[in-house]
Amino acid sequence: MHQQKIDEDLRSIAKGNVLSDDWSKKIYSVDASEFEILPSTIIQVKDKEDISNICKYAYYNHLAITGRGAGTGLLGQSLSTGISLDFTKYMNKINELENDYVMVQPGIVKAVLDKELKKKGKFLPPDPASSNFCTIGGMIANNSSGIHALGYGNTIDFLDGIEIIYSNGFIEPLFKKSYSIHDSAKKESHSLRTNKINQLFKLFSSDILQYISLKFPKVTKNSCGYRIDTLIDNSKRYLPHKIFASSEGTLGITTLAKFRILDLPLYRSVMVIGFENILKAVKSVPTILSLFPTSLELLDHSVLCYEKIVRNKFNFKVNNNNNGGTLLFVEFAGDDVVTIELKIQLCKEKLHGYGEILEVTSDNVSCERIWAARKNALNNVMKLTVGSRKPISLIEDTIVNPEYLYDYTLFLLKIYKKYKLDYIFYGHAGNGNLHTRPVIDTASSIYKDLIASLATEVFSKVYELSGSITAEHGDGISRTKYIPQMYGNTIFEIFKNIKFIFDPTNIMNPGKKVIQ
Questions:
Q1: Which tens digits make up the pLDDT trace of 143-182?
Q2: pTM of this prediction exceeds 0.90
Q3: What are the structural domains, with CATH classification, of the chain?
Q4: Which residues of 375-409 are buried (b: 16+ CB within 10 A; e: fewer)?
Q5: d(CA 122, CA 27)
Q6: pLDDT tens-digit profile of 413-432?
Q7: Strand pairing of 295-300 and 179-180?
Q8: Closest by CA position to 309, among listed 379, 239, 259, 228
Q9: Are 409 and 415 spatial neighbours (Cβ–Cβ below 8 Å)?
């Protein structure tokens, strides 16, 4: 079918704005990744009926559909040559806000939601560095985490329900607290809403569930593949809505999401600790974790040398060499100020002689200043780009159990030395999630072979340590091809079956998660 005919049809179908001019396509062809892919058409969707009608048309004509939020994805998750659905213009509302939950549309920006929740003394803990821009829909798609995932959990942990639209346009509300496994096992069970949810459940025999428990990463964060390890909880409740978190829009389009929310803690204190180098910093992580902080973050000299806050406000000089300093940011929060003060004191005592306590603060202004410095790390990393020499993102989101973090960091440093590469380190040390990037000349004739060799060695080490190749940033275009190696054939076949159940014609964000 000719593209002009498709655009005309979509304008007659859609209630939202249909954009097909070259300038709009150029704008929507990029995100925060290295990729540039022109969509065929962009639609700023109005509501779920709008999306349903567009999906029906795309399904009948076999046209690809990809959802898009703010375009903050680092791996091309929202890029495709098909129809791009933009939720930010119209579908950006809070539908319900109660004492213990909030119902939101996918296009709402996280910072906007945070502001409204704060008025009620509430918060939704996942807080990516891009919170001022990223949307809730994108956070669901990636299973985003952020600096407070250590103390509270990830997006998938707070997702209590979802309304989804499948590739054929069918609208599926999944807001029950759970689906009974015993009922689900019955033929034509009335406890299940659709055949797709029933088919999903039938993939998981007791043997398969046991195998998943053995094979899935032994870490606190994971956005690799489909999160089938969360579908049945310890109480034997079936939670099918969880399959859509970390799915990158490959199984359906989110139109509404229900999140559990928490009371804001009454007190918090943040410590900034300086270490001579990154190895000394990560060696202290298990010690700090024994005190149960709500956050434990790392900034290495490779990032710090681009952040004025360090020298001006912490008076901690950073050297521009491989022996430069490293900072750990530690937060304790809760409703008992005595407990928090005790933990601060114990932390100081346990780290005596290992690191230098640079700052301890409990006032909100200072705490926010410190966390702003940490969240600005990615911006500083981008400043390292000079021409074709740039920080490469393929291995930037690995995670291992913090117990292995020292050995893993030592391994990474040896790898960088082996390939004679400059590098950067920052990230969520408390989770064992390091955002590390080699700085490589992408115009070099050896670039592709170099990055492939680097990824093979690093990911193999991650597999060995029962970690994940992506903790919170997703698979996207870059890492999807590594998913079979990550999980093995048995689990990857389950992923393929899930993709077929929910998207049999492969039109929902094709090329991500499962390549067909």
A1: 999 999 999 999 999 999 999 999 999 999 999 876 665 5
A2: yes
A3: 3-86 (3.30.43.10), 94-263 (3.30.465.10), 267-464 (3.40.462.40)
A4: bbbbebbeebeeeeebbbbbbbbbbbbbebbbebb
A5: 35
A6: 999 999 999 999 999 999 99
A7: unpaired
A8: 379
A9: no
